[in-house]
Amino acid sequence: MSLQSSTNRALRISAFLADGMVSRHWADEEALREGARALRRVCVEKVYLDVSRGTHPNVEALTRARDVFREFGLEVGGGLTPVQGREFGEASSSKWWWLCYTSAATARDVENAARVCARLFDEVLVDDLMATDCRCARCEAAKGGLGWDVFYQRLLAEFASKHIIEPAREENPRVRVIIKYPQWYDGFHLYGYEVEEHPRSFDLLWVGTETRDIEYEYVEPYQAFANYRWLVSIAGEKVRGGWFDQIECYPEVYLEQAYQTVLAGAPEIALFVPTPDYLARGNAMIEALREELPRLRELARVLRGRTPEGVVVYKPRGSDPGDEAYLFDVLGAMGIPVAPSAELPEDAACVVLGVHAAADASVVKRLKALVERGATVLLTGGFLARCGDPEVLSLAGQGAPPERVSEWCFRFEAEGNKCRSATKVPFRWALRPGAAKVLARAQGEGGWFPILTENLLPSGARVLAMPIRGAEYGEPLALVVPEPLTFVQLARPVVQLVRDRLLAPLGIGFSAPNRVALYPYGGGVCAVANYTWREAKVEVEDARWGGREVREWLRGAAVAEADGKRQVVVSPRTTILLMPKGEESG
Ligand SMILES: [Zn+2]
């Protein structure tokens, strides 16, 4: 097999054609043929035809589209988008597109769409609107004494099995029913996206990697990677692809989404809503993707079979984030590579426990076991406050639980040296250390207060504490990141203190401006993504490199060496790959 074909096979491009595209844009055979040619031109190999999007399936149009696309060598699967429509299902009582899932009309119409889809195709990919916030009288009665979050999760797990998966399998025993999760992982549990039963009952999972323009939706590019990896920690090999769109995008963001999806390990990328305008020659986003595709494929080839490495950040299934929503993204954007996990591995060398982890009733016991083994652990302010366990406070060298504050700071002190951040950074907790050493402080309205402490234990364990602030969901609830993750702007010298300590157990060193992220993989292969509009000078070291030559593999950027560290300049909004000699074959 040639290198070229092995590279092409490492990453497949598909497209999800929302219902409406076939009826509106490609309504007759000639238009369909044009559509198929446009899809082929942008290297799409497979399409998923959406049979329902608030509409009843049009079997004739779907069959025609399927057959024409097949003529052009496209593989064709089916899809289904459960949303309200004028004559479809029963709307949720809220303002969003969602359905009410205690409604007989919803059950009847979604089930019919699933049956039709399975008769036409061997795949039923359920788009990420299978969520609800309905508070109608019937839902209220069905909820009983449960919280809305628990009720929605149970309701949708049962609904999906009974009205989508089972009917689809009845119609077509070969069918694979796929759930596509949205990207807003810290809000899943609020709206019925549960991660216990769905990953068991669905055949495969797809992951939303649509981070879009951060100015509109406050989503750090790292979220695409983190969401994918957290779902892999739950569903493993069942996770088969990432999915993003061109909504609220410009070419740099669009490509960033593609890179994050490949860095996360997706063997397939689905492009959402590739309308004729978007597929047209000269469209800035699609042309950017076409130009970058050989590099994306080469990246996928190199990373195939290599697991991303990082600091384990523990988020149990369904756990609430408190004021640390999107903690994975905050850490990632601070240049701390994370391995998001729904489990807490006993042998982890380095772990971050945030508010999420406090949802685990046995977390104190597990933390003690990690510390006895000499692990490095960072406990967030929110974790210390919510857990409140005296033994945990003692392990962290805290004299008392953190104190609630409301401060926005830009003056800091890192190991006694004064420094500033580019913008004010929020704090909701001030640490109250006892035996722990204070590594960094912030100046707030109420004076200087500790924001990073370290407690070294006889086992060799290092217990850090830091009041990291993420986002906080309030009422009315937002869907994606509810507020900017300003904490990622923390003064660089403070970031460097915590980064050095968390990366040391992994044998890695990284120095870079904020919002430049690191992605280490097996064998010492390592990617760096610059999310900023400025060139970033970065320094990386990895114990596995030894004396080996290290090259930048995707763009041929110059790599200099000083004191065992490799220095490279990363262009704005660009991802690079550092490759130690001997790892090139992937
Ligand atoms: Zn309802």
Your description of this structure?
The longest helix is centred in the first third of the chain and has 24 residues, at 148-171. The mean pLDDT is 96. 32% of the residues lie in helices and 27% in strands. The chain folds into three domains: 3-303, TIM Barrel (Alpha-Beta Barrel); 311-505, Rossmann fold; 510-580, Immunoglobulin-like. The two termini are 14 Å apart. By secondary structure, it is of the alpha/beta class. Helix 1 (3-9) packs across helix 13, helix 5 (104-120) runs parallel beside helix 7 and helix 10 runs parallel beside helix 11. The strands form four sheets. A nine-stranded mixed sheet has the order 10-9-11-12-17-16-15-13-14, sandwiched between helices. It has an eight-stranded parallel β-barrel with strand order 1-2-3-4-5-6-7-8, surrounded by five helices. Strand 13 and strand 14 form a beta hairpin. Residues 93, 100, 102, 134, 136, 138-139 line the site of zinc ion. Zinc ion (ZN) binds next to helix 6.
